[in-house]
Every structure is written in C-alpha cells, then in structure tokens.
C-alpha cells in the first residue's frame, strides 16, 4: 500500500502525475466500495471535489500550501465540522450540524488537506467499547482506503489499539482539541492515524507548523537509553481508576445533552425537568444510559469518597511518576492494552504498533524519535 | 419491601439525579447492570489516600489563549434547537403552575 501513503501521493501531485480531484474521486469510489463496512458516517463527495479543484488551481499557480495540499483525509464523527453532520454516534445529535469547525479541521484546511467525510464512531462510551471504532478506522487506513485519519483518543484508546498503523496521540499543549465532542475531558486527545512513520512525521511537522509553534532550536543529540528500572504499577488498579474517572466525567459531560439548545428533544412535557429527562431517556442508547447512571452513582451514597477521590489520587500518583521518569529520560515504552487503555496526557506514539506505545513529554523528543524509528523503518522496507 | 422494589427504588434515585427517564424494563435491566459494575469498582483499594495529593485534573489545567473570532449568528444558533422562536430557546414554564404551556 506504499503507493497510497501521504508522501507517495504528495510526490505524485508534485510531479504532475495526478491531480487532487482525481485522487478525491478515487477515494470516494473506494469509500463506496469499501471492504471496511460502516467506516464512514458521512461522505462529503461534492465538498471534497470542490476543495480538490481549488487545490489543483493553487498548484497550477505554483502556490501550494505544503505537502498535505490536495491530500484527502477523514475525521472521526466526534469532531465538529461546519455544516456537516456531527453526530458522534449519538441519536440525540442526529442531524446536528455545528456552526464551526474543530481546530484540527481548521489546521488541516490551512495546510490544503481535503476533508472526505466523517468516520463512524461509538459515541459516549469511554472506557467500555473503544476497540471497534479504532480498529475499523485503522483497518481502513492500513488498507489504503483513506490516506490518513484523525481520531479521538480517550485515555489511550487509539494509540493502544490502532494495530497495523502508526498512531500518534498529541498532548493538549501541542494540539488544540477545541471542537472535539468531549467524552471524558481529562482523557480526551487527538490522534493521527497513518500508514507509516514517514507519514506520521510529515503530518506532525504540518500540524506543528500550522499551529505556529516552531520547535525551539536545540542541539540534536542521540536519544539516551536510561538504565532499566521496573516501575511498580498495578495495571488492574490503573484500569479500575480509568473506568471510574471516565464514567464520572462522561456522565458529567453528557449533562450538556438536554435537548434545549441543540439536538433532538421530547416535546410532550409540562416542565423543564420532565422534558430533559424524557429527551435523554428517549434518545440515549442503552449503553449511554448505563454510563450516565454509573457515573452519577459513583458520586452518590459515599462512593465519591470511597471510589472517585481515591481513583483520582491514584491517577495523580501515576502522573507524577511518569513526569519524574520523563524528566530523566527521553522516551518511556509502555505495553499495549488489549482492553481498556490508561495513559495520561502525554505525547504517545505507537511507533512499533505490535509491540508497545512510546510516551514522551514534548515535540522535540517526538521529532528525534520520528527520525530514529523512521530510519529503522526504511531499513526494514529496503 | 421486595428485592425488586428495593432495586427499583435504588435506580430510581440515581436516574432522577441523572435526569434520565427510564422504562420499566430499563429500570430492571439497568439497575442490575449498574449495580454489578458498581460492586466490582467498589472493591478496588487505592493507595495512597486521596487527601495526600490534589489531582491536577490532567489536561484541564491549561487554558487556551483568548482569540478574537467570528460571532455566531443568533438565527443560526437558535436554528439548532428543536423549540425556539425568533429570539429565544423555548422551554416549558419554569415558574408557575405545572401544565401551562410556555
């Protein structure tokens, strides 16, 4: 599938071997005959073709906006896209068309990338069922049906489970997540899903450039390898902590969905409370209701003190330990999770997708790592 | 009070706090599912004690810089709601006698 990578497509566009419009039409055709059933929630063929024509016009005039100019991509349906359905897999948001674009969509537009459409997502199910959506998207990228995808990462769900691809999870400090329909805010982040390291690096550079955050010049040094110390963490407790915190935060986030200012609404109630309750009862799925009830129950009847606060303290302990480690070393490698994931908000890279996830604290180290791992990858391909 | 009545009463309180109306069948199924999960989660014993550290709420302690942008058009904003007139979102009467329409 190397001929369908971002870098290969960009090279073909630059060489005049194809046009962005031809690429978009090819990917739209692929989407319609996709072997990855249900990967798209919404395909904006007309909008994508119009944007591609504009990109081709720019290229004719010699004013391309970068290596992503004219390259198609797709975002998960949990990112707001102006005038385009953004339903996050939730019936209450059926037909919802935001009035603004998510920041990541704005940034990619500034780079000239072409939005093909929205990728189906599982909605407000943090901690319970992230595997299907990430696997579905990763498979579509791996099969070359989308050059690259933008996904939400809820506590590591994308970076841990996008096997077969390279998933890069960006920290909040590096990439603004405004416009991402939040599930559990302290776990949410943005992830890019690409076919290989070269594409991940290319996308990383483009996003950092468009964020107007040039990397600080720094003496380039070889990555250090620290002495290996075993860190005593209970993954079982980490997972439990994740389940508790994500359920509480999701229930809290979902309080926004009351049918008053946007979305579907029940219409036969005599009081505000009754209308809100009926709306949520009518349009939330069984699993969404379960998450809301669980998150609410975890703050009632003494469980706030028994479960929620200790889980927060445990996460804080993990965070401090990881912070201390990243102060001493450049990269930490953590194992992949087959089930629920638990990662603090660091920059994560599934550079060796079948083996583990690499955590680092800043973009400087990420760039070094891209170079180091990318060189290894080139070696493997050759 | 029977076991089923106890369960229903228990999930009823949580559903009311969560502003969620449930069908009779959902009360029973969700009550059992949520109780099972709560029991499992409640078994976890975390160290250290929560009073030791204040959670910094990872990722939430950094505010974005303010940036001037386009204002959202009122008409467009109201158009997102299921019930609205030219100026306001419409909701059932908050004060006054129940049953009156807005």
Radius of gyration computed on alpha carbons of chain B? 22 Å
Helix/strand/pairing category of chain A:
alpha+beta
Unreliably modeled segments of chain A: 213-226, 338-345, 351-355, 378-382
Number of strands of chain A: 9
Q: If helices are DSSP runs of H or I spanning 4 or more residues, what is the number of helices of chain A?
A: 12
Q: How does the helix and strand content of chain B classify structurally?
A: mainly alpha
Q: Would you identify the regions of chain B where 5 or more consecutive residues have pLDDT less than 50?
A: none
- Span from first to last CA of chain B? 40 Å
Beta-strand content estimate of chain A: 5-15%
Give the percentage of residues in beta strands of chain B.
Answer: under 5%
Question: pLDDT average of chain B, as an integer?
Answer: 78
Number of strands of chain B: 0
Quaternary organisation of the protein chains:
heterodimer
Q: How are the strands ordered across the major sheet of chain A?
A: 1-3-2-4-6-5-8-9-7
Q: Helicity level of chain A, as a percent range? A: 40-55%
Order of helices and strands of chain A: HHEHEHEHEHEEHHHHHEEEH
What does the main sheet of chain B amount to? none
Distance between the termini of chain A: 15 Å
Number of helices of chain B: 3
Order of helices and strands of chain B: HHH
Shape of chain A: globular
């Amino acid at each position: 599938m190397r001929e369908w990578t971002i870098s290969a497509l960009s090279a073909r566009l630059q060489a005049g071997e194809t046009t962005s419009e031809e690429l978009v039409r090819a990917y739209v055709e692929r989407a319609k005959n996709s072997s990855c059933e249900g990967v798209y929630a919404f395909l904006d063929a007309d909008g994508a073709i119009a944007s591609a024509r504009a990109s081709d016009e720019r290229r004719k005039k010699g004013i391309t906006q970068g290596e992503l100019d004219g390259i198609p991509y797709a975002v998960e349906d949990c990112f707001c896209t102006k005038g385009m359905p953004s339903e996050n897999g939730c019936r209450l948001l059926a037909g919802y068309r935001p009035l603004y674009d998510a920041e990541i969509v704005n940034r990619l537009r500034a780079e000239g990338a072409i939005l093909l459409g929205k990728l189906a997502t599982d909605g407000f199910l943090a901690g319970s069922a992230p595997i299907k959506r990430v696997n579905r998207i990763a498979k579509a990228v791996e099969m070359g049906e989308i050059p690259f995808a933008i996904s939400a990462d809820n506590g590591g769900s994308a970076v841990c489970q996008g096997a077969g691809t390279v998933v890069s999870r960006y920290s909040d400090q590096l990439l603004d997540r405004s416009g991402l329909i939040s599930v559990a805010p302290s776990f949410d982040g943005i992830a890019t899903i690409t076919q290989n390291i070269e594409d991940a690096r290319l996308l990383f550079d483009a996003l950092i450039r468009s964020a107007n955050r040039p990397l600080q010049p720094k003496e380039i040094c070889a990555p250090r390898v620290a002495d290996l110390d075993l860190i005593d963490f209970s993954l079982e407790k980490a997972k439990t902590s994740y389940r508790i915190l994500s359920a509480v935060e999701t229930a809290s986030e979902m309080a926004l969905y009351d049918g008053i200012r946007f979305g579907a609404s029940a219409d036969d109630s005599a009081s505000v409370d009754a209308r809100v309750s009926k709306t949520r009862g009518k349009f939330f799925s069984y699993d969404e209701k379960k998450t809301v009830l669980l998150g609410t129950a975890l703050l009632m009847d003494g469980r706030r003190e028994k479960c929620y606060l200790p889980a927060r303290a445990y996460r804080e302990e993990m965070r401090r330990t990881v912070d201390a480690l990243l102060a001493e070393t450049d990269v930490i490698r953590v194992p992949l999770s087959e089930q629920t994931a638990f990662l603090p908000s660091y920059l994560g890279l599934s550079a060796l997708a079948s083996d583990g996830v690499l955590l680092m604290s800043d973009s400087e180290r990420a760039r070094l790592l891209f170079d180091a791992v990318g060189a290894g990858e080139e070696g493997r391909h050759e | 009070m029977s076991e089923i009545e106890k369960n229903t009463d228990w999930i009823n309180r949580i559903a009311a706090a969560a502003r969620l109306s449930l069908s009779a069948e959902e009360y029973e199924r969700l009550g059992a599912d949520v109780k099972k999960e709560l029991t499992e989660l409640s078994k976890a014993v975390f160290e250290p004690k929560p009073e030791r550290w204040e959670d910094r709420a990872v990722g939430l302690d950094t505010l974005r810089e303010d940036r001037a942008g386009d204002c959202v058009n009122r008409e467009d904003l109201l158009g997102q709601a299921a019930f609205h007139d030219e100026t306001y979102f419409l909701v059932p009467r908050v004060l006054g006698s129940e049953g009156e329409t807005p």
